[in-house]
């Protein structure tokens, strides 16, 4: 029983120590939010299905890079599906910049600074799948239409938990949007 509890609580302990990509909630929209994400360094892999790129990205943060250093895992993992391609991206810890981020030894990976911006986001639980992704994207787009907020890009799936965490899972659909802050700057 003791070993079972250890494995059940391990993902919660690991998650508590994992850096989470920062954002500010700008506006609540019933079951969704408008968020502002600041710029962040990312490592990305794009391939045709069924390859996800997770293994290559994991090897990059495990030291398969030009500085042979280990990079802490962060959350969420970004996933995007379009035009017959799957893109998976890891957010790099905040300490990395365009100047100090190690380049991947694997030419199929791309390291870049994501410029950030405004995104609409909707959360859902459990393991993500195509049906949940489609339904939550539909709900979010419908809500944006009602609020007259214009999407400016494709939806992404954000997954916050290790596949070994079975309970309290967090996933999100985010869509870049055209948004003007209500504050007087």
Write up this protein.
With 185 residues, this protein is of the alpha+beta class. It folds into two domains: 1-38 and 118-185, no CATH class; 39-115, Multidrug-efflux Transporter 1 Regulator Bmrr, Chain A, CATH 3.20.80.10. The protein contains three helices and twelve strands, in the order αββββαβββββαβββ. The protein has helices at 2-16, 54-61, 130-146, and strands spanning 19-20, 24-29, 32-37, 40-47, 74-75, 77-82, 85-91, 109-114, 117-124, 150-151, 156-159, 171-178. Strands 2, 3, 4, 6, 7, 8, 9, 10, 11 and 12 form a ten-stranded antiparallel beta sheet that branches. The longest helix is centred in the last third of the chain and has 17 residues, at 130-146. The termini are far apart. Residues 1-16 have low confidence and may be disordered.
| Uncertain segments | 1-16
Order of helices and strands, N to C?
HEEEEHEEEEEHEEE
- How many alpha or pi helices? 3
Structural class, from helix and strand content? alpha+beta
The span between the termini is: 57 Å
Total of domains:
2
Number of strands: 12
Rg result: 17 Å
Tell me what portion of residues adopts beta-strand conformation: 35-45%
Shape annotation: globular
Helix content: 10-25%
Q: Note the main sheet.
A: 10 strands, antiparallel
Report the average pLDDT across residues: 88
Give the key terms.
single chain, 185 residues, alpha+beta, 2 domains, ten-stranded antiparallel sheet, 3 helices, 35% strand
